[in-house]
Structures are given as structure tokens and as C-alpha cells.
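Thread: Modeling a multi-component assembly for a lab meeting

Hi all, long-time lurker, first post. My supervisor asked me to bring a structural picture of a complex we are working on to next week's group meeting, and I have zero experience with this. I have the sequence lines for every component (624 residues in total). Could someone generate the structure of the whole assembly? Inputs are pasted exactly as I received them:
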Amino acid sequence: MVGRDAHGYDRAVAATMGVRAMPPPVIELLDKALVAELTVIDEQGRFRTDPLIPFWDGRFILMTSSMLFSRKLQDIKRNPKVSVSLSDPVGIPAQPFSRATIQGDARVIDTDLHQGWYRLLPLWEAKEPIIKTFLKPMQKLGLPLFWERAVIEITPRRVFWWPAGDTTRDPQVTDLLEVFG
Amino acid sequence: MRVDKALSKLGDYSHAVLVVPSDGGYPLSVATSFKVIDGTVEVAPVSAGSSVIRDTSNARLVFSHVRPYPGVGYDQRRYVELSGALSVTAPSWRFAPSAARGWDEQELSFPELVQRAIPQGRRYLAALSAERGQPVKPQMGLGWRFFLATRLPFLTATIVPVFLGLAAAAYDHHFSLGLAALTLLGAMAVHLGLNVANDIFDTLSGVDDVNFTPTKFSGGSRVLQYGLVSLRQMMTLAAVFYAIAIIIGLVLVAIAGPGLLWLGVAGVLISYFYTAPPLRLVHRGLGELAVALGFGPIMVLGAYFVQTRQYAWRPLILSIPVAIFVMLILYANEIPDRFADAKGGKRTLIVRLRPAAVIGGYVAAAAVAYLVVIVGVITGLLPWPTLISLLTIPIAYQTVQGLRAHFESPYQLMPYLGKNVNLHLFTGLLLVVGVLIGILVRR
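Re: Modeling a multi-component assembly
Sure thing. I ran the full set together rather than chain by chain. Output:
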């Protein structure tokens, strides 16, 4: 168990971690979060972070991005390694509050920009009920390109969880390679 | 965004997210507390377990905020992303920012942000098209694209004067339903041709491309900017509308007599040269006058002439308030467009005048419109029930108040631009109703 695994993680470190499933407190954060910070890597190797609403479908972290704000989509296509931070005590009304970071491999699904993302709608409506109003035909006409959207599907690889949100203390680290790899 | 401006905004955030390189080539993002000190940001050391955080020139410090809004979702969206170098010397870590970007919806409205992002959307579609080897375009049903491209709801500006001309003719004992339908169809074709031509020439001159604050009342239909319709398709659409208008116009001239010809020719020319070179009436501050003539006397008198084969003073007087209020639609709609119009060389009255003069002009014009009705009734040219149109004075008052209060805020201005459209519609329809009641009362 030396060197690095297929995802670049140190094998010795990965072997010491829990490897079952997404920790329940992190699922709670994902289910409640109105905002998460998605960090991608651009073609120069620099980070770029955007706030987005995260969704959890039991296997993937899902996000959706309009083609208008598509730099992150192009970056993910070049380099799928991303990080999702759940950090905001106001934007994540979970009780008790904690913080998490999920590193994962992202995939852009943009085969049907017009309707492909509609599969996220039930999850989106649950967090942002006003979205139904914006999707009425006359409303959509106001910002038609905003509704041409891609889905970002993130396969979690490693989860850092800080109970009570205290990031000065060591996080519980869960490696999900064996579950989802 | 400038770094010093970004730093000055950080007091609005409860925490930061530090982004650094980590194992396996993944970014690592960890929340932390922070303090701005002398142009740098001191961040509390964080632990990422076995992932060691080191000094790096490739770090980000991200600040993000939303306010939950139960039953709706959230509002107060804002974020700042600082790029820079991180030094992890104990006891505190120091982040030296070198660049910043971000967005605060209270400073830049979401609709404006979306408009500014259109070039990125186009680049993405171009990249997708190259990736797939076939063009990828935004999708919208043909009916909706037609609705958008023609700006169909603005047809009320045509329906009102045509109805008024017809009512005036009925008052003078002339009315043919078939001719009325043909007149309405021809007038609508000219109007739709104007709307489409306006988009074509505003796109070719660059005016619509640099307008980041369009509203549903201003800034054109945007179908060309959105890539929903091609320039060629718009040109075809405009040609079809003008062809329909000219054919119907010639049929009506054949039926009603050559006296209608000069009016029809003037209508089509004003419509086309509204934004088209070489006249480009709207670029010369003549747009308001052109619209007032086209959607006032020309349409009212035209509809009247088709029915009666003669011109008269009553329809001309009736057309003046309608002409003024339709002119005021354009006039007020140009308020949010004024910066883009100025950049594109479209020297509208709003571009030329100071805000106080713009509001003063509006008040004076509306006052004249109502005064014409009152004087018309006093002189016996208009039936007294047309005074019912004065019921819209409160709408005019509210519109003026709104324009004054929100002159600098395109999106807060929108409800008042809507009231302004209603002012024209309701005043015109009440004039129609007044004339029709006049027929009943006279009997």
C-alpha cells in the first residue's frame, strides 16, 4: 500500500479512512444547503470558485449551471477534479450546524441544455420554491438563455467533516473510493 | 472588481472559504474566520487532517452569502473571490490578494448580470457546436420566438388608434366591419414590421448589443442577441410584414380612394426609417415625433378615411391625446436605454435632456393631452362623454412619481413603464368608449 491510487490520493492515507458511504451529517448539510462553494481548476491550473445550490440524490452531488455562466463547465470538461464546500451557517439551515468539504470528480451533462436539467427540478423546488414561478412560459421569456442549463454531476471521493463547524480542529475524513469508485 | 474595493466589502461576510491545492490534484476548500489588515487578509489556521496546507501562490479566499427566504428560497446573493498568495507562518496565516471578482445583486441586478453574460453563453454554444460537429442553439418554440421577435403585446399601440378612427367614423354614420378588419390588419402589419426592423437596425448599429439593462418595455426583443432568430430570418419577417401592409394599403386605396395613399405612404416610410438609414429618425431625436405621428393622426385618420372617404377635424382632435401618450411610451421607455443609446449614437430626447427636463417634458405633454380633450368638448368637436378619458389622470400622476423616484434604476422603473403603457391603452379605450356613448346619447 504505497504510492498513489487511481485518483491521485496517497494509498497509505486512504487506507486508514472510513470507506462506506457519505456520512449522515454531511447528507443533512447537502439536503439543507441553499448555497455551496464549488471550486474548479481552470486551464492554467488556477482555482475558480462559484456559489451554487447543491443537491444530493443519494449517489451524486448535483448542481446546475446556466450556459451563460459556463466557464466552470468548460473548466470541468478539461479537469474534472473539484471541491465543494458547505460552509455558511446562514445559507445552510441545518441543526446542529457543522461544516464539510467534499472533493470529487465532476462530469458536465449538457446533451440537452433545454430540458436535461429538469430532472433536478423536484430537488431545486424543495429548496427554492419560487423557481416554479420563473419557469412559467411568460416568465421564462424574460431570460430565455438563463434556462438553457447543464447539469454538474459530482462523484464524491473524499469527505472532510468538521463537527460544530470548527475547522481549527481535525476533521473526520471519509474516503469514498470503494463505494463509488 | 478592484482588490481594495473587494476588501472594503468583506465586513459584510461572516466567514471565508480558503481554497488551496491538496492531494491528488484536487482543490481543498475549508471555511475559516478572517480579519482584513493593511490590504491583506489574516485567516485563522485550519486543519484538513492529513492534507497539509502549505505556502502557495495559487490560493483563493472566497466569501459567499445568501439570506434564506422561507417559502421562496433565498435573496441577498453576493460573493467575493480573492486570488492571491497564502503564507501559513504561525500563529496566524496571511493571504495577500492580487485580484478580485464577485457579484452583489444589490449592486448589479440579476437580469443585468444575465445580459452581461450573453457573450460567455455564445462562446459556450460555439464550443459545444465544435465538440459535436453540428450547430447547437438555444431552443424556443416557433410561436414563442414569433411572440418575442414581433413584440406582439405592443400591438395595443395600434389597436387603440384604429379603434378610435373607427369609432369616430361610426359617430359620423359610417361603419363597415370588413373594411375595419382590413384596416386593423394592415395597421398591425406596419407596426410589426416596425418592431422587427427596429431590432435589425439597432443590432446592426450595435445599440442592442451594448444595452445591458433591457426591460420588457425597452431594449428591443433581444432575439438576435440571444441567438433565437437569425438576422436573415428577422429581415425576412420584416419584409413579409411590410409586404402585407403595402398590399392591404393598396387594396384600401383602391376601395377608399387616392386620398388615403399619401397617409399610407407616410406610415410605411415613418415606420421603416424610424431606425433605418439614412434617415434614422430615432437617432436624431425625432423618434418621439415619428411615433406620435404614426400611431396617432396617421392611424386614426387612416381608419376614419377608409370608412368615410374623407378627412375631418374630429378624428384629428381625437388622435392628439393618443399620439401624445404613445409618444410618452417611447419617451419613458428610453430612460433605461439612455446609456446604451448614447453609446450607439442614438441621440434620443432622453439622451439629450437632463433628468429634470425629461420629467418636466412628460408632465407638460400629458397635461396637453388632457387639455386637448377638454378643449375639444368645450368647442363641441368632441362628444362630452369623451371626458371619461380624464379618469386616467391618477395613472399619469403615479407614472410621473415613479419615473422621478426611479430614474436611475432600470428594474425599479419597470412597474411605472407598465403603468405608462396602461395610460395610453386606458386613455385611448376610454376615448373610444366616450365616442360610442356619444352616439347613444345623441340618439
